[in-house]
Backbone:
């Protein structure tokens, strides 16, 4: 016998829906966190590159 979502009680459907929503929010949050860390690291390298270029031009 196959599983059917419409056979579930409304309370179980709400639990599944909210559970999926929480999982989606966690996934999006992790992706955003990773992208923010990458942006911060890249900004540090840009600052370093600009400092090196200033030092080269100073000679």
Residues:
């Amino acid at each position: 016998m196959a599983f059917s979502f419409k056979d579930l009680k409304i309370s179980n459907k709400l639990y599944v829906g909210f559970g999926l929503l929480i999982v989606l929010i966690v996934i999006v949050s992790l992706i955003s966190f990773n992208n923010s860390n990458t942006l911060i690291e890249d900004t540090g390298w840009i600052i370093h590159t600009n400092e090196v270029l200033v030092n080269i031009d100073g000679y």
